[in-house]
UniProtKB/TrEMBL annotation:
The record marks 15, 22 as: Transition state stabilizer. This is 2-C-methyl-D-erythritol 4-phosphate cytidylyltransferase. It comes from Geotalea uraniireducens. Pathway: Isoprenoid biosynthesis; isopentenyl diphosphate biosynthesis via DXP pathway; isopentenyl diphosphate from 1-deoxy-D-xylulose 5-phosphate: step 2/6. GO terms for molecular function: nucleotidyltransferase activity. Catalyzes the formation of 4-diphosphocytidyl-2-C-methyl-D-erythritol from CTP and 2-C-methyl-D-erythritol 4-phosphate (MEP). NCBIfam families: ispD. Its EC number is 2.7.7.60. The keyword Glycosyltransferase does not apply. Pfam families: IspD. Signal peptide: none annotated. The record marks 156, 212 as: Positions MEP for the nucleophilic attack.
């Protein structure tokens, strides 16, 4: 049973509002996407990476990210779709030769701070359950609001914030995506497509630093995380 990464990176980065697609913005002199792919490149248990990119950026991405940063595990770069879900499905369909029991770690191209141990925990859980969702407990109180009025305050103990990777055996996630596509159901993450088939997706503890770089504020946070890595803050105990 192999473990593979599927990295959707075919969005447009509209909320970032930058002049180039956000995944090519530089963090410590390297594109965000190269940082993300490097985590999988370095994880010995990951056998290969499938990358999904906007069609007109494939040649640029191959030269400026994959070849430039010697990301040797990238097996294929395929064109994405209009929504993230379509991009993931295109990636899954491109994973020819993948066995039903192989584990697929689906990870946003713009989450560069995912620790390797989180990948490992997710891959292990995907062998036991129908899927594994990396998430962190909600720190704030969450309100359900309709037309400006609060309609519910769900108990915080049961609320988790979904991150990636989301890990599944290939046959499970391929079937869930194909069904959603045929039924024109659009979810906001991959786990949701498996959940709606009545299958069991388990939570795996994520990391509060595993942020999705979405808006300019996230770049400030990313800069702070990288500075701390370069100069570790001494532990109070000495
Ligand atoms: N059609 C899409 C949309 C998103 N993604 C990818 O899914 C991840 C999470 O998406 P998000 O951060 O929301 O990125 P964008 O869709 O690019 O952002 P925006 O909505 O601001 O345009 C990103 O790696 C993004 O490139 C994708 O592969 N295909
Ligand atoms: C999959 C995801 O990263 C989980 O938090 C997220 O749903 C993707 O974000 P998007 O804004 O819906 O593309």
């Amino acid at each position: 049973m192999g473990v593979y990464a599927l990295v959707p990176a075919a969005g447009m980065g509209k909320r970032m509002g930058a002049s180039i697609n956000k995944q090519y913005l530089q963090l410590a002199g390297k594109p965000i996407l190269a940082h993300t792919l490097a985590v999988f490149e370095q994880a010995a248990f990951v056998a290969g990476i499938y990358l999904v990119i906007p069609e007109d950026e494939i040649a640029y991405c191959r030269a400026e990210v994959v070849e430039r940063y010697r990301l040797t595990k990238v097996r294929r770069i395929v064109a994405g779709g209009k929504e993230r879900q379509q991009s993931v499905l295109n990636g899954l369909r491109a994973m020819e030769g993948t066995a039903a029991d192989d584990v697929v770690l689906i990870h946003d191209g713009v989450r560069p701070f995912v620790p390797e141990e989180v990948l490992c925990r997710a891959a292990e859980m995907a062998r036991e359950a129908d899927g594994a969702l990396v998430a962190v407990p909600a720190k704030d109180t969450i309100k359900v609001v309709e037309n400006g009025v609060i309609t519910a305050t769900p108990p915080r103990e049961s609320l988790w914030l979904a991150q990636t990777p989301q890990a599944f055996r290939y046959a499970v996630i391929r079937a869930a995506h194909e069904v959603a596509d045929a039924e024109r159901f659009l979810g906001t993450d991959d786990a949701m497509l498996v959940e709606r088939l009545g299958r069991e997706v388990r939570i795996v503890m994520g990391d509060y630093r595993n942020i999705k770089i979405t808006t300019p504020d996230d770049l400030l946070l990313a800069g702070a995380f990288l500075r701390e890595r370069a100069t570790p803050v001494p532990h109070p105990a000495g």
